[in-house]
């Protein structure tokens, strides 16, 4: 139902996804909750979307963000998709999420508005369709931190508590997250169409993806090959940005990879402290499939699965189609490597390129691993010339490396201040440290105290400021905390 007050919230829906064949979605309704209460609203994002912040902060606003009231023009639906989960293919779909509609912003941009934790759908696979408050707040914190770091990501508009409990290992307070995305088209959406759809249905999906995300190549002679190449380029950039920031997604299943190239589904993700390519946080990734150092290769594997879904459209001759797909996929690692090298050069204040740069970078990372140096703080220390706080900086090995680095800086036209500015804009002073995030969530969930989270969000909103206020958020967790583990939060 929609009431008069809701007309002022600013929703401006135009739902193009509903024009796809019915097999791609099921019309659903959010399950009403007993006592919706707005916990946090992303006011800058709301303004960007053309929404009325004051209206969303009202009682009716909280009800609409909980799904108790459906805004005019919305068309709630659950999307069907499949995916390789830890390498095993299965049928999936929005089991606890639903697409409310597509918002057209004042600038004419189209974005998905999705509820997460809004109740059961036909794809719930025995689940309750609900979400707990802690994981929803965690996604809010991490996704907004990613946005501030300049990493393509879905974003969080709001978290509403439901006044109800969800049963996991224990009874937990329930919540609904409102997520904003360029779209929720996934590699797994294409896998679903290729496995269970008709040739016409997968072609309509590919045409829709082109129109929505890559209109510049819609008229190319082989537009489906162009689609594949554009998605490859987006992910070569995205994964490089993950690696440069020390971000570990934790569950890089094909249903968690988007056609738009945005980071999506913040389940068991975390940021690395001590540098080690084998770092894994997820409690369910016992084999280390999605370890930090594996992420580029897994992305390539996932892209190959996406390419397989397009084969019938790449060429009428199957062998030729496979050849075209393989040639496109083979470019991914080189594209990724170039993006990563460019980003690493910037982290060291290097504007130009030299052949020896890669060995300079690899030698630094090798030392960081050997001496168990913190990834973010090492580059921060190099940026602000504070080479005192870690054993690494006291070694003869590092002294020799530092001399080579200084000589390398001296062989470029840009002066020292320009290099320092490049480093400051490339090396965050703060990341969402795991112990800080957990501290904020514990205060929120157990004590109903959101001040810790609000302060953390404030610090994370400008990670490249290198301000005195950020100093305490650069400290590492005490050793007594032990290895950090994350969970999917379902």
From TrEMBL:
Residues bound to ATP: 93, 95-96, 116, 128-129, 179, 186, 265
Record family assignment: Belongs to the SELO family.
Keywords assigned by UniProt, alphabetized: ATP-binding, Magnesium, Manganese, Metal-binding, Nucleotide-binding, Nucleotidyltransferase, Transferase
NCBIfam families linked to this entry: PRK00029.1
Cofactor(s) required for function per UniProt: Mg(2+); Mn(2+)
InterPro entries named among the record's database cross-references: SelO
Binding site for Mg(2+): 256, 265
Catalyzed reaction equations: L-seryl-[protein] + ATP = 3-O-(5'-adenylyl)-L-seryl-[protein] + diphosphate; L-tyrosyl-[protein] + UTP = O-(5'-uridylyl)-L-tyrosyl-[protein] + diphosphate; L-histidyl-[protein] + UTP = N(tele)-(5'-uridylyl)-L-histidyl-[protein] + diphosphate; L-threonyl-[protein] + ATP = 3-O-(5'-adenylyl)-L-threonyl-[protein] + diphosphate
UniProt KW Metal-binding keyword: yes
Active site: 255
Coiled coil stretches, renumbered: none
UniProt-recorded name of the protein: Protein nucleotidyltransferase YdiU
EC number, UniProt record: 2.7.7.-, 2.7.7.108
Pfam families xref list: SelO (PF02696)
Origin species: Metabacillus idriensis
Function: Nucleotidyltransferase involved in the post-translational modification of proteins. It can catalyze the addition of adenosine monophosphate (AMP) or uridine monophosphate (UMP) to a protein, resulting in modifications known as AMPylation and UMPylation.
Family matches, as HAMAP family: SelO
GO molecular function, one term: manganese ion binding
Secretion signal span: none
Domain of life: Bacteria
Gene that specifies this protein: ydiU
């Amino acid at each position: 139902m929609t009431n008069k007050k809701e007309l002022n919230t600013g929703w401006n829906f135009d739902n193009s996804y509903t024009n796809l064949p019915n097999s791609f979605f099921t019309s659903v309704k959010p399950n009403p909750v007993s006592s919706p209460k707005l916990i946090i609203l992303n006011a800058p994002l709301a303004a960007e979307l053309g929404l009325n912040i004051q209206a969303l902060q009202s009682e009716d606003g909280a009800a609409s963000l909980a799904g108790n009231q459906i805004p005019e023009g919305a068309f709630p639906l659950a999307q069907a998709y499949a995916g390789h989960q830890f390498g095993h293919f299965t049928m999936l779909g929005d089991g606890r999420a639903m697409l409310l509609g597509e918002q057209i912003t004042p600038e004419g941009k189209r974005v998905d508005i999705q509820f997460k934790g809004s109740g059961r759908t036909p794809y719930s696979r025995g689940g309750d369709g609900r979400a707990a408050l802690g994981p929803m707040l965690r996604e809010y914190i991490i996704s907004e931190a990613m946005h501030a770091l300049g990493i393509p990501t879905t974003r969080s508009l709001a978290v509403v508590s439901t006044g109800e409990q969800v049963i996991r290992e224990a009874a937990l307070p329930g919540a609904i997250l409102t997520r904003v995305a360029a779209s929720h088209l996934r590699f797994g959406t294409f896998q679903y169409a290729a496995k269970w759809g008709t040739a016409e249905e997968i072609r309509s999906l590919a045409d829709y993806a082109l129109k929505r995300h890559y209109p510049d190549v819609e008229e190319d002679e082989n537009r489906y090959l162009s689609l594949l190449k554009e998605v490859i380029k987006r992910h070569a950039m995205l994964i490089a940005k993950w690696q440069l920031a020390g971000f570990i997604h934790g569950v890089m299943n094909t249903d968690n990879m988007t056609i738009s190239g945005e980071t999506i589904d913040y389940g068991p993700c975390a940021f690395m402290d001590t540098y080690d390519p084998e770092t894994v946080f997820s409690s369910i990734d016992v084999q280390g499939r999605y370890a930090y150092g594996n992420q580029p290769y897994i992305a390539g594997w996932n892209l190959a699965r996406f390419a397989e879904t397009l084969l019938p459209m790449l060429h009428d001759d199957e062998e030729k189609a496979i050849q075209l797909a393989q040639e496109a996929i083979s470019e991914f690692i080189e594209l990724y490597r170039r993006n990563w090298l460019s980003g690493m050069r910037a982290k060291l204040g290097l504007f130009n390129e030299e052949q020896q740069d890669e060995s300079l970078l690899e030698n630094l990372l090798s030392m960081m691993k050997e001496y168990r140096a913190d990834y973010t703080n090492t580059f921060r220390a190099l940026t602000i010339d504070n080479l005192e706080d870690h054993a690494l900086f006291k070694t003869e090995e590092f002294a020799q490396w530092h001399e080579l680095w200084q000589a390398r800086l001296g062989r470029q036209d840009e002066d020292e201040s320009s290099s320092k500015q490049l480093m400051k804009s490339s090396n965050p002073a703060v990341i969402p440290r795991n112990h800080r995030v957990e501290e904020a969530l514990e205060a929120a969930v157990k004590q109903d105290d959101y001040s810790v989270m609000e302060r953390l969000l404030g610090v994370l909103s400008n990670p490249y400021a290198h301000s005195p206020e950020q100093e305490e958020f650069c400290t590492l967790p005490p050793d007594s905390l032990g290895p950090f583990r994350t969970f999917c939060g379902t």
